[in-house]
Design a protein that fits this description.
The chain is an all-alpha fold and about 100 residues long. The protein is built from four helices and no strands. It has helices at about 10-35, 40-50, 60-75, 75-95. The longest helix is centred in the N-terminal third of the chain and has 26 residues, at about 10-35. The N and C termini lie far apart (about 30 Å).
Length: about 100
């Protein structure tokens, strides 16, 4: 019998905590770091998103995390101004 982690109540709780963490972090990114062009902090956010998204079952988070990381690394403010709201929509859709 194969273990299905997505039907495990403990894993569901971890997913909810992860989504709440992302929501809180994203609010700070939008309200402070994007406005101030704090590229290293935004890069780290993207890097962490890239590294954790798929592990929680959100491969789209991993993909956009990579884009955010690279745009921040290259200090592409205009690209980040598109990617971050795009991620905000993705996160809102998942959180319901």
């Amino acid at each position: 019998m194969e273990y299905d982690m997505f039907n495990d109540p403990e894993f569901k709780e971890l997913i909810l905590e992860y989504l709440e963490y992302l929501n809180t972090s994203l609010k700070e990114i939008i309200s402070t770091h994007l406005v101030n062009k704090d590229f290293p902090i935004i890069r780290k956010f993207g890097h962490n998103l890239k590294g954790t998204g798929a592990g929680y079952g959100f491969t789209d988070f991993t993909d956009i995390g990579k884009k955010i990381e690279f745009a921040a690394r290259d200090e592409e403010y205009d690209e980040l101004s598109v990617l971050i709201p795009e991620f905000e929509k993705m996160l809102s859709a998942v959180r319901g």
